[in-house]
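RESIDUES AND SHAPES:
===
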Amino acid sequence: MSVPLRCPGPDGWDRHGRTPAALRWDARWRSGGISAAEARAAVGRFLERVRATGRVAVPERLAQDAQLVVGELITNVVQHAPGLCGLGVEVRPDSGQVEISVWDTSPVPPTRRPPDGRRVGGHGMEIVGAVCRAVTVTALPSSGKRVTACLAPRAPGPTDAG
């Protein structure tokens, strides 16, 4: 899996000069070509590179949440979707929002089951829904689906204090 960081022009703005351009990373692979751990690590490296640009602050908590979401979504892909798959991550400098998109060849949308502390497994979409501001599932015209999860920086809570 490659980890290219696509950046905007030298001034850091979109080509129309209106809004700060997003920083993006994406990868594609065939079934079995990636594990959830590899995807989490790649996203962690990408977010570190975003921080290094100095264009946007990515709080550690947001980076951890993004890696958690990627791990859960990629686990679903690995378990349920054969064929070509992809992962994209975008950070918006104006809001600090992180958008994660995972697409695969399975037309079956992921389901969010009701919480059940006795169940082993099957909590992925419950976790994703709990940490994300929004989660959408879009059917792809050629077959398959795209799951998009949006995370936004959160206000520090009592457990975040040092």
Notes: The chain has one domain: 23-160. The longest strand covers residues 23-30. The domain at 23-160 is CATH 3.30.565.10 (Heat Shock Protein 90). The mean pLDDT is 82.
